[in-house]
Each structure stands twice: as C-alpha cells, then as structure tokens.
Amino acid sequence: MVMSKFKLLLLAGVMAVLSGCSIQKMAGESVIEYTHDKAIPYLMAQGDLESACNMGQAMGPVVASFSRVDLKPENVGIATNMAAGMCAEFDQRAAELDRVRALFNNQTSEAQDALIREKQGHRLAAQRMIKGYEDAIKTFGDQSEKCKKFNNSTDELLSLLGLASGALALLHDFNSEKSVGISLDVPGIIEKSAACFDDDKWWGMPTALRASLWLSIPGAGPEGVDPIEAFEKAVKKGDEQGVILARAMLAFMASNVGMNDVMCRAIAEMPAEDKLNPEWSMLNAYARSMIVHQADLAWTRKNGYRAPFMQPACPADAAAPAMNQSEVDDLLDGLLDEPEEQAAPAAENAAEPNAAPAAAEQAPAEKTTAETK
To answer: Mean per-residue pLDDT for 13-35?
Structure first.
C-alpha cells in the first residue's frame, strides 16, 4: 500500500516534469486560486482593517513573485496592493492629525515635521494603490472604450476595486506633490470605465467614483450634471444596501474641495453599524475609517483633539473654520522655505483663536529691546 502511494507520487512528479510544469508553478497556481476564491471573500466579510493591511503587505509580494514562473497573479494583486496601501494611508492620516494639532498649538517645527511625514505617507499609498489599478487593467483590460463581461461577481468586484484604487492613488499622488507622477490619462480611463458598472448592484460606487473625479477636475463632468447631486443619489443607494463606501467618498471629497457643510452632513447621517451589510464588513470598516478621520480633523482644527470615541460628527461650527486649508498650506510652504524668518509670524497665524496669548508672549521681548536702547 505504501509502495503504491509512492508510485503514484512518483508518477505525478514525472508527469509534471514531462508536461513542462515546475513545483513552483504548481504551488503558485494553488496559492493564486486560493487567494482569489477563498482569501479575498473571507477578507471582505471581516472588518479588521489592521489585519487586512498587514495581509496585503505580507502576501502581496509573495503572490506577485509567482510572475517569475510565468504565472499571472495580477487578479489577486488588485486586492493585496490596495490593502497594503491602506497601511500607508493609516500612517498618513496619523501624521495629518499631528500636523493639524501642532498648528492649533502654534508648534511650527512639529507642524513641519508632521507635514513631511504626511507627504511620505501619501507617496507610499499612491505607489501601492496605483499598482492595484495597474493590475486591474492587466487582468480585465481597459474598459474606457469597451465594457467587459465578467465570469463571476468576484472578478467584477475586483475590477471595480481596481478603479477605486486608481482614484485613491491619484489623490494621494496629488497630495505628495505628484512625486509618483501618475499619468494624466488615468482619471479619464477611470471615469469612463466606472460607467460600465451597475450602481444598483454595487452600492452606488460607480457613480461615486465618477462624481469624485468631476469634483476634482472642474469641467470634467457631463454638462448639466451637479456632482454633489449625483453623489447624494449614489450615497442613498449605498445606504439602502448597507455599504457606505459612496458616503465615505462624499465626505472625503467634500472636505478636499472645501464644502464643509456637505462633509458634515455626510458624517452626521452615517447609518448605525447594525444597519450595515455584514457580507461587506471590510469595505464598511474602511469607509467608516475615512468618515471618522474627517470628523477627527474637524474636531482637531477646532479643539486640538479628535472627535469623541464612537461618536463621529463635526463640532458645532466646523462648517466655518477660522482658517481654510489653502491658508494652512501657504503657511507651511512658507515655513519650509524660510524656517528661521517665518517661524514666529507663522505661530501667530496658525491658530487664530490663540493669537492673544502669542502676542502676550512677545510683549516682554519688545519691552526688553526698548530698555536696552
């Protein structure tokens, strides 16, 4: 009996060699198939973002390495690269909160350091997420000219997530001073390709993706279409299906273009967790993290600390901040150009509610100068 099993294994090995297969290739096919059919659906149904991003960082390179034995792992690279990009995004968000808090406290050197870390996070997130987009194009083709018919829902979801990964990569690249240099053709490809997907099936995400690009690029949308109205229709569909990705993108994009009223409303009207679809726990957890981050930023700008635990919402007057984002960016650009000369006035301007204490601190210095004279 033992000898019979040995002969079967030997025969399988000989057949593999004769057919041109290698042990590595056979193993790679098994890993790729398992990741596509089992690991990704499992990941979508659990909401631990840290484990997802760590899996993306750990498994992504392993799966991608099978390209060296003539396999095509791009269909699972979409998810692993996007998940790895989440890790970089989490670091970027932490640095962004540090920067806003430092500005609130007139800590200019800390704000400079946090800004650099923030841009580093944006750059790494863009590098990883654009790979997810590129893997989607390699796997399913460019759908901006011709829509594709998918064999199954998993492939259709991966293709849509690839477009989302590309859209996020564009935003991260822009915020890293375009240090990755993503092609300007990408926004148009994403916008046209997203139209191939059914809003009713995919939680309003196709329209949300398109509307995010319409908001980012003035004049990019169809004539007569209000991006915010399109966004809000997509959000309603997503909420009804228990997936809040469209809502998260609305909150994020509204914040980026200075529409704080829209952002705060998107945060305030977020459905309770028990109203969300457990089949898509991972996507909902990621969407919720985006929404909570916008609430945390609004609270930190006003109070110096993030939103109350498990209660994401804007503070009462967040819709009219004392200092808009372009003024903050101008301030930090000045600090980085001439740190010694600009540091003192920047500290006064960085947080207007604290201007009086800053002036009080300067008064003794002026008096001492007068006495010296």
So the answer is: 67
